[in-house]
Amino acid sequence: MRAIAAALTGLLTIVCLLWVIDLPRYLGQAFYREQFLAPVLGLALAALFLTVPAGKAPRRRVPWYDVMFAVVGLAAALWVSVEYQRLLVQLAFRTTEVVVLGVVILLLVMEGLRRTTGYSLFLVVSFFLAYAMVGHFVPGEFRARPVDLDWMVVYLAFDSSALFGTPLVVGATVVVIFLWMGQLLFKAGGGQFFTDIAMAGMGRRRGGAAKIAVVASALFGSISGSAVSNVASTGVITIPMMSRSGYARRDAGAIEAVASTGGQLMPPIMGAAAFLMAEFLEVPYRDIMIAAVIPAFLYYLAVFIQVDLVAAREKIAVVEQDLPRARDVLKAGWHFILPFVLLLYTLFEWNEEAEIAAIYACLAIVVLGAVRSYGGQRLRFRDIAASFSESGQIMVELIMILAAAGFVIGVLNLTGLGFTLTLVLVKVGANSLALLLVISAAVCIVLGMGMPTSGVYVLLATLVAPAISEAGVDRLAAHMFIFYFGMMSMITPPVALAAFAAATISGAKPMETGIAAMRFGWVAFVIPFMFVLSPTLLMIGDPLHVVLNLVTATFGVYLISVAFTGYFVRPLSLPVKAGMLIAGLMTIFPDSALELGGVVDGAGAVLGIALLAWEYRSRRRAMHEAA
Question: Cα–Cα distance between 260 and 300 in angstroms, integer?
Answer without folding.
Answer: 10
